[in-house]
Amino acid sequence: MNKVELMLLGIVMDELSGITEKISALLEGEGNFTIEFEEAEPATDMGDEVPDTLDFKHFETLSAPVRARVPEEKQEKRIDSDEMSDPPISSDIAADIAGYVKQVESRLNGQPLNCIVLGKYTGQLAVAISDTFGGAGGRVLCIGDCLDSDNRPLLDWSKVVGGRFKQTVFPVAGDIDETFQDTEKPIDMVLFSTCGSYTESATLISRWSGLVHSGGMVCGTQFDKEHYRASHDAVIDVFGENRVEKSEITTCWNVKIGSKDKKP
Length: 264
Fold this sequence. Notes:
The protein is of the alpha/beta class. It folds into two domains: 3-49, no CATH class; 91-256, Vaccinia Virus protein VP39 (Rossmann fold). It has six helices and seven strands; from the N terminus they run H-H-E-H-E-H-E-E-H-E-H-E-E. Strands 3-2-1-4-5-7-6 form a seven-stranded mixed sheet, with helices on both faces. Helix 3 (122-130) links the parallel strand 1 and strand 2. Helix 2 crosses helix 3 (122-130), helix 3 (122-130) runs parallel beside helix 4 (155-161) and helix 5 (198-209) packs across helix 6 (229-239). The longest helix has 25 residues, at 3-27. It is elongated. Residues 33-37 and 42-74 have low confidence and may be disordered.
């Protein structure tokens, strides 16, 4: 016990002792008397004897544990636009596209191919397709960066295409956002060399892919989550991830359209 407690205990004991004596006297018949309690002096002059803080035992009412609400896992936010303003192009991409042409030729038993290239770098990609044609041949229609405002072939595009112009490669007037209907021959391959917003990409892919007949292929050059996330997600959402075949070397992708496949 500290000094304050000992002092208070002493005062109480003295009072009890006096009361005990008076009660004994009363019991022995020594007369009437009153019991008086002396007021204890407050311990205000103890100075350093009183600690600055006192420790108290706190009894807290136990209640049912509060369960924190764990928020549902947030879905990854959709990226609205691609990081890059132009689609990718390289010799490796051209090589992948050439490989796709061979696959389509094999699926169609060597028939002449009717192909469409949409967007940018249509000249370079059309050359890659045209130069891969087998004995049956084929044609490549370019829609995008091949004509000027007067629908005349652009000089740079013409230089790239060279002697293939109007032989196997043909520029087509119009915008890629317009639906193209070729009544002469079904479409065997559509190549998207495009990028932009998710909505534009998904709409474009859905519209043009619907023109590809059974045995054909839909393909593109922008299957890249880092730089072309919007286009990447659009491809996945239109076709389903299981149907998309990704190149092991480049950002190219393809989806084969078969008799049992559902068109987007």
